[in-house]
Amino acid sequence: QVQLVESGGGLVKPGGSLRLSCAASGFTFSDYYMSWIRQAPGKGLEWVSYISSSSSYTNYADSVKGRFTISRDNAKNSLYLQMNSLRAEDTAVYYCARGDPGIAVAGDAKGFDYWGQGTLVTVSS
Amino acid sequence: SYELTQPPSVSVSPGQTARITCSGDALPKQYAYWYQQKPGQAPVLVIYKDSERPSGIPERFSGSSSGTTVTLTISGVQAEDEADYYCQSADSSGTHVVFGGGTKLTVL
Fold first, then answer.
1. A48, closest residue in chain B (CA to CA)
2. Which of B38, B63, B65, B68 has its CA nearest to residue B52?
3. Where are the beta strands (DSSP E) in A68-118?
4. Are B10 and B20 in contact (CB under 8 A)?
5. Which residue of A lies nearest to B103 if distances are taken between CA atoms?
6. Closest to A119 measured CA to CA, from A88, A84, A82, A92
7. Which of A12, A27, A113, B36 has its CA 20 to 30 A from that of B17?
8. Is A112 within 8 Å of B45 when comparing Cβ atoms?
9. Of A55, A66, A72, nearest to A21 (Cα)?
10. pLDDT tens track of chain A, all 125 residues?
């Protein structure tokens, strides 16, 4: 069965850095777009970033562009999010999700069909 | 930046039909998706490509599209359907992903 397990969250001071990981299993990881989506406490969902199956394409929300970097290691079935210059407003549960949300060229556009359970990132002094 | 607009809340009695709308200028050219999120849980995809239903999602969930508005319809609402629902699409360039603000469905 498909499993996505995030790790790496925690408490970090403003201006600090954190690296999130998402371990994937139960499917051919290298076939899929992957994304990070976050949810601030009591708020709605916010897309953060996606990466194509071969890492050729990446994109970021304006709110994180220049501070966050998405990457993947298909040999390790793993997705990453390097977060630098963290701000209080980055405090959220961060989910990794599988699939093409309608942005992939010649993709299947089947949406975010599997999500991890999330990892909490708290940015506070 | 591009936005999708949803009503903050919708209330229905059990057995009735709930309709949740999502509006956005690029919806005529971009697919829409719907996600259900219950408290303390990760979101679940309930509709993709405007009106397709993933396997395992009950038939009472359906989606439709008309111009700049897409609608999630839940027929014969059950207590277990009480949740937050989010629409999602892409901007007009098809490069950025956008979520609506979410709609809290209350089953009275």
1. B97
2. B63
3. 68-73, 78-83, 92-98, 114-115
4. yes
5. A44
6. A92
7. A113
8. yes
9. A72
10. 999 999 999 999 999 999 999 999 999 999 999 999 999 999 999 999 999 999 999 999 999 999 999 999 999 999 999 999 999 999 999 999 999 998 888 888 899 999 999 999 999 99
